[in-house]
Design brief:
- The chain has 3 domains: 157 residues, Alpha-D-Glucose-1,6-Bisphosphate, Chain A, domain 3; 240 residues, Alpha-D-Glucose-1,6-Bisphosphate, subunit A, domain 3 (Alpha-D-Glucose-1,6-Bisphosphate, Chain A, domain 3, 3-Layer(aba) Sandwich); 124 residues, TATA-Binding Protein (2-Layer Sandwich).
- 49% of the residues are buried.
- The longest helix has 18 residues.
- It is an alpha/beta fold.
- It is built from 18 helices and 24 strands.
- The chain is globular and about 70 Å long.
- The strands form 4 sheets. Strands 17, 18, 19, 20, 21, 22, 23 and 24 form an 8-stranded antiparallel β-sheet that branches.
- Bound molecules: 1,6-di-O-phosphono-alpha-D-glucopyranose (G16) and magnesium ion.
- 1,6-di-O-phosphono-alpha-D-glucopyranose binds next to loops.
- Belongs to the phosphohexose mutase family.
- One of its GO terms (biological process) is carbohydrate metabolic process.
- Its cofactor is Mg(2+).
- Keywords: Isomerase, Magnesium, Metal-binding, Phosphoprotein.
């Protein structure tokens, strides 16, 4: 049997003291005696806040999601809220998703806040994450929490933290909060709930959120056009079932077919390998139903209903899954057209995306006379832009990772309104004798044909983390100088905030917060970004290539050329 490292044993033994319950101690003892490897994985560090809150595997230990790690977060957050809003009557809203333990962990979080004298609004059942963002502002809370691990595998859970603007926590608050949490002992967690301070919420917020979603996601498409579009929708066992079908109906979409087998919320996600609409396999059942029903559009949402996958028929009538960049492009185009039609583009509007998303978006947005802004990966950064620019109007924003945000009534990506918007676009295009897919190709003829591919290499645990770190160190030491026969002309290193022009060796500063991201640009317009995921044990490589497209008819041929180029790049750079 492998021996346990003394420092790990010391940390684990801390969990055998009176601050922990009998079941926890029993499991820690079991790990000490039987599973030193798992013990090390569970205790080698504290679970960290990443791109979208704290996420981890459920279980005992400092690096796991359990009532003690989340209790400590909540105790730290309670202390931090008191410091941040002195003298205010503090209020927080709490939502949870379909995952195993989400409901009981939500209760722990509610208990700890209330024990600290903080008023709690707790949804009585599972709800979408965007509804929580909405609720924070509607109920004038200083903070909000969602118990979810988004689209991660079933063994995960997590803790998303929202601030008073409805966006997820960003610097400097996130660092200050982590410091407060790390300085706490487990004995300091106050679990003694004050049930008088916990108020269940549902209908009132549901109605307001549904109305706001319909208002923000519907435009001037006729009632008849909406009836004419055949939709297949799947909630993939997640929270969207509580809201999306209702919102579609309210907006006048009458032909909605739900994937019955996936309607039931279930944290084991029994009908899918992974509840991530980014992975084509997740939409398999929905696509099968679409063939039976001869549907025009298929939409599936992730467990906490902030990301969505959209599939539509191509010009040969086959269903194809759009990637996040494509969904973002078509939604952005549609919103811009609507704002233009309504005479609302006046020079103080903006749209936003992230540094690993398609460069095509900027061209599209600026073509409409709208300002384009780019931030680090994560919708929290887009939400921060809205907060930081109160004098500007936010039209919408998205990213490579599936998900979109329409307007500013929700300050995170929102698969409720985005589902509605996707159906609205499909209906409006069909009514014009066009299609959503063909419209996308038309955009390519205007702005250039961009093709993107995300390569995610899974590297789990302590070893995986080391390997990912090393890969980025290696890349910094031996940067790519040529890719697919094209010279690299610029390298951006977001860790050192330096952008290096390799043509004249000049350097300039990058004016966004530091992050472990490298981006390469070649003379041929290829862009390759590399970064560790902040939500899963993965390193991510984002490849973007482009060419011109003279007509929609030539799309398939040109698209294949770009696909070949991407696979050459993958091979050359050894990206799996
Ligand atoms: O996972 P979600 O749906 O909460 O979404 C969160 O994580 C995604 C993946 O992040 P990473 O590339 O660091 O893994 C981000 O793209 C997204 O903006 C963020 O809100
Ligand atoms: Mg999600």
């Amino acid at each position: 049997m492998a021996t346990v490292k003394p420092e790990i044993l010391q940390k684990a033994k801390r969990w055998l003291t009176d601050a922990f319950d009998a079941d926890t101690k029993k499991e820690v003892n079991r790990l000490i005696e039987e599973d030193p490897k798992e013990l090390e994985e569970s205790f080698y560090k504290n679970a960290e806040f990443g791109t979208g809150g704290m996420r981890g595997v459920m279980g005992v230990g400092t690096n796991r999601i359990n009532k003690y790690t989340l209790g400590k977060n909540t105790q730290g957050l309670s202390d931090y809220l008191k410091k941040s809003f002195p003298g205010k009557d503090l209020k927080v809203a709490i939502a949870y998703d379909c995952r195993n333990n989400s409901q009981s962990l939500a209760k722990v979080v509610a208990d700890v806040f209330s024990a600290n004298g903080i008023k709690v609004f707790l949804f009585s059942e599972l709800r979408p994450t965007p509804e929580l963002s909405f609720a924070v502002r509607k109920l004038h809370c200083q903070c909000g929490i969602v118990l979810t691990a988004s689209h991660n595998p079933p063994e995960y859970n997590g803790y998303k933290v929202y601030w008073e603007d409805g966006g997820q926590l960003v610097p400097p608050q996130d660092e200050e909060l982590v410091e407060t949490i790390n300085n706490l002992e487990y004995e300091a967690i106050n679990f003694n709930a004050n049930s008088e301070l916990i108020q269940k919420i549902d209908t009132e917020v549901d109605i307001a959120f549904a109305e706001a979603s319909v208002k923000n996601g519907s435009f001037d498409t006729s009632a008849e056009a909406r009836k004419n579009i055949k939709i297949v929708f799947t909630s993939l066992h997640g929270t969207s079932i509580t809201m999306v079908p209702e919102v579609l109906e309210k907006a006048g979409f009458t032909n909605v077919n739900l994937v019955e087998e996936q309607k039931e919320p279930n944290g084991n996600f029994p009908t899918v390998k992974s509840p991530n609409p980014e992975e084509p396999a997740a939409l398999k059942m929905a696509l099968e139903l679409a063939e039976k029903k001869k549907a025009d559009i298929v939409i599936g949402t992730d467990p906490d209903c902030d990301r969505l996958g959209v599939a539509v028929r191509n010009n040969k009538g086959e269903m194809v899954l759009l990637n996040g960049n494509q969904t973002m492009l078509i939604m952005t185009w549609f919103l811009l057209e609507q704002w233009k039609k309504q005479g609302k583009i006046k020079g103080k509007e903006f749209m936003a995306s992230t540094i690993v998303s398609t460069p095509m978006l900027q061209k599209l947005v600026e073509d409409y006379g709208v300002k384009y802004m780019e931030v680090l990966t994560g919708f929290k950064w887009i939400a921060k832009l809205i907060k930081d620019h109160p004098a500007l109007d936010f039209i919408g924003g998205g990213e490579e990772s599936f998900g979109y945000m329409v307007g500013d009534f929700v300050r995170d990506k929102d698969a409720v309104t985005s589902t509605l918007l996707a159906c609205e676009i499909a209906a409006s295009m069909k009514a014009e004798g066009n299609s959503l897919y063909n419209k996308l190709l038309e955009l390519y003829t205007k702005y250039g044909l961009y093709k993107e591919e995300l390569i995610s290499l899974v590297k789990k645990g302590i070893e995986g983390e080391k390997e990912i770190k090393q890969m980025l160190i290696d890349l910094r030491e031996n940067p790519w100088s040529e890719v697919d026969g094209e010279k690299v002309i610029r390298v951006e290193d977001y860790k050192s905030s330096k952008s290096k022009n390799l043509r004249d060796n000049s350097e300039s500063d990058i004016d966004i917060p530091k992050s472990n991201v490298l981006i390469y640009y070649t003379e041929g317009g290829t862009k390759i970004a590399a970064r560790p995921s902040g939500t899963e044990p993965k390193i991510k490589f984002y490849i973007s290539v482009n060419t011109s497209l003279d007509s929609v008819e030539n799309y398939d041929k040109k698209d294949q050329e770009l696909a070949k180029k991407i696979s050459r790049i993958r091979k050359e750079l050894n990206l799996g």
